[in-house]
Automatic annotation (TrEMBL):
This protein's name: Nucleolar protein 16
UniProt keyword terms in alphabetical order: Nucleus
Main location: nucleus
Organism from which the protein derives: Ancylostoma ceylanicum
Protein family membership: Belongs to the NOP16 family.
BP GO terms, sorted: ribosomal large subunit biogenesis
Entry GO terms, CC: nucleolus
Gene name linked to the record: Acey_s0819.g2522
Intracellular or extracellular location(s): Nucleus, Nucleolus
Length: 222
């Protein structure tokens, strides 16, 4: 697990982190921009794995900072990204009262002494990850990706959201509007209101329906 981070964003399949010094906690905040960042990173990962020569690599920032002399894992870690979410935030295993009976791999004592204790092996693995991490590059890459995610999110927020109602609701609203007009209490008592929508719920659905292009077509019919 990378221990030199300011914060970590939960973005499957990557955990995008900025460089700093902070212990990783179990509770992590979720941001909309990191979800967009996930999509960007997912396109990059798919391109890398399908084409190692990076001819189809879509991430400009990743492409500019990619080193062909390094493996994909080394490149990802050097840019401040976690290669595997299981390594960044391991899944907490449930407590077991009974130990499962599994086969134990035998090892010579000499080999065991060379490898060291479990704690020493874990520390060595963390040190190797920190050695690969390029802080300057990581800050540049993550900042660029976050900025790109912000721009995409801002562009999406500026566009009006198109809400589509299910066909069964549209049919019900057409019937209710023609029969009751704006009497939502009477609509709620109608036998065809099978889902028991409240007057407030019907009012909200009616607003969505009347703002749609489908309503304009219905109203234009003589």
């Amino acid at each position: 697990m990378l221990s030199t981070i300011y914060r970590i964003h939960f973005v499957p399949p990557f955990f995008v982190v900025t460089v700093g010094i902070r212990e990783l906690g179990e509770n992590t905040n979720l941001w909309k921009k990191t979800k967009l960042l996930c999509k960007i990173m997912l396109m990059v990962v798919i391109s890398v794995w399908k084409n190692p020569s990076m001819q189809n690599l879509r991430g400009k920032v990743i492409k500019e900072n990619w080193e062909t002399s390094k493996t994909p894992r080394e490149n990802v870690l050097a840019m401040g990204l976690a290669f595997s979410p299981n390594e960044a935030v391991p899944v907490k295993q449930p407590h077991r009262e009974i130990i499962d009976m599994v086969s134990v791999e035998e090892m010579d004592l000499t080999e065991a002494r060379v490898l060291g204790t479990v704690a020493e092996q874990r520390l060595k693995k963390q040190q190797e990850k920190r050695a690969v991490l390029n802080k300057e590059k990581a800050l540049r890459v993550v900042s660029s990706l976050e900025r790109e995610a912000d721009e995409i999110q801002a562009d999406r927020d500026s566009q009006p959201r198109a809400v589509r109602l299910p066909d069964r609701d549209v049919e019900l609203l057409i019937y209710l509007a023609q029969r009751y007009g704006d009497d939502y209490k009477a609509m709620a008592r109608d036998p065809k209101n099978l889902f028991q929508y409240t007057p407030k719920k019907i009012s909200n659905l009616m607003k969505i329906y009347r703002s749609s292009g489908f309503y304009q077509v219905i109203e234009a019919i003589p």
